[in-house]
Design brief:
By secondary structure, the protein is α+β, with helices and mostly antiparallel strands. It is built from 6 helices and 19 strands. The strands form 3 sheets. Strands 3, 4, 5, 6, 7, 8, 9 and 19 form an 8-stranded antiparallel β-sheet that branches. A 6-stranded mixed beta barrel has the order 10-11-12-13-16-17. Helix 2 packs across helix 3.
Length: 389
């Protein structure tokens, strides 16, 4: 890839006017601000076609890596050039699937600064998943500080305002060698990033789903409620078959009664009827999405009644709108759902009023276009990445 850089100078606030060359940081790579100061600083944008950015991997410059010591604590995290990693053939993640991942985004504001959206929620969810998978996990502070450091080190890969976002992928894996079925003796926490456009090629346009009646995403007592790597490969077969028939994705039912809505392959689902918005309750088989949680709060603030409950598939027949939520898709309106050969359409093939309203509210907040009264965004200033070990 041609990595010529177009320089763009902007006025920003630099919270760190000076720095001794040996800034003392904790194992979480955190530095304290020394005080406000206004400076003129240049940031650079990678030379790629920002107007035609898709949702796919674009290798960036740096990644973050931190290993767990034998006492179960993570320390000595560091930035490395993005590239392949060394992994034992008998590592726990390769042999027994002992791994988790997260997904979050960074957005560039008009003034050039960068916003993260609720990174502490991703940290908490990873810790919850790690407990289920018998893994140690970074502290919330370590996780968030590592995300900040990685984003700032790759700051010229954050798309211009309105052109996309920087997708952030934290990974936690059993990297130690193990032959018998047991927790790995060593763990690695890694973060890499990639600029992305819309997850669905339709963008903010209705997608078409098909209800899967043969395969299931999760079972009670399993790991459907945590973001373990093993949850995702099993959906590929049904997803590929659906896309071959022209559908955007698959909507899964529960594995016991086979009649209650659960999730789309990688998104939560919502059903709108009048002023009531319903979504499947979190009971161990559905991932507690951070976008899902945020949309519920936004909907409540906008006067909607929100219900988290069992939703029978037949309720789709009478719904006013259906939409999906997730880090990658944010809010994706559903144009039609096909169940047992019958197709139900919504919104006259357009974006529903509720979907549009929730999408606009949440993305405006994520991009810094409206004031954040919820305290959900974390602003990063250019220059912060100079304050590292």
């Amino acid at each position: 890839m041609d990595r010529r850089l177009d320089e763009l100078a902007i006025e920003i606030q630099n919270p760190f006017p000076s720095l001794s060359s040996q800034c003392q940081v904790a194992s979480s790579t955190r530095c304290e601000a020394l005080g406000p100061n206004t400076s003129r600083e240049a940031f650079q944008l990678a030379d790629i076609d920002w107007d035609n950015l898709e949702f796919g991997l674009i290798p960036t410059d740096h990644m973050y890596m931190m290993k767990c010591s034998k006492d179960g604590k993570f320390s000595n995290g560091e930035l490395r050039r993005y590239g392949n990693i060394e992994l034992s053939p008998s590592s726990g993640v390769l042999n027994y699937g002992q791994g988790l991942f997260e997904g979050l985004k960074a957005y560039r504001k008009e003034d050039g600064s960068i916003l993260l959206f609720r990174p502490e929620e991703n940290a908490l969810r990873m810790r919850m998943g790690a407990e289920r998978m018998c893994m140690p996990a970074p502290t919330v502070e370590q996780f968030v500080d590592a995300v900040k450091l990685t984003v700032l080190k790759n700051k010229h890969w954050v798309p211009p305002p309105g052109k996309g976002s920087l997708y952030i992928r934290p990974l936690l894996m059993g990297s130690g060698a193990v032959l018998g079925l047991a927790p790995a003796p060593e763990y690695t926490f890694l973060i890499y990033v990639s600029p992305v456009g819309n997850y669905f090629k339709e963008g903010l346009a209705p997608i078409n789903l098909i209800v899967e009646t043969e395969f299931h995403r999760a079972t009670p007592g399993g790991t459907g409620g945590v973001k373990t790597i093993g949850n995702y490969a099993p959906v590929l077969k049904a997803q590929a078959a659906a896309k071959a028939k022209g559908y955007s994705d698959v909507l899964y039912l529960d594995s016991v009664h086979k009649k209650y809505l659960e999730e789309v392959s990688s998104c939560n689902v919502f059903v709108v009827k009048g002023k009531t918005i319903s979504t499947p309750a979190i009971k161990g088989t559905i991932l507690p999405g951070i976008t899902r949680k945020s949309i519920i709060d936004v909907a409540l603030m906008q006067g909607y009644q929100v219900e988290e409950r069992l939703i029978e598939v037949e309720e789709l027949l009478n719904a006013d709108e259906v939409f999906c939520t997730g880090t990658a898709v944010v809010v994706s309106p559903v144009g039609s759902i096909t169940y047992l050969g019958d197709r139900v359409s919504y919104g006259n093939k357009g974006v529903g009023v509720v979907s549009q309203k929730l999408y606009s509210t949440l993305t405006s907040l994520q991009m810094g276009l409206t004031e954040d009264h919820m305290g959900w965004t974390v602003e990063l200033k250019l220059g912060d990445d100079d304050f590292q070990k």
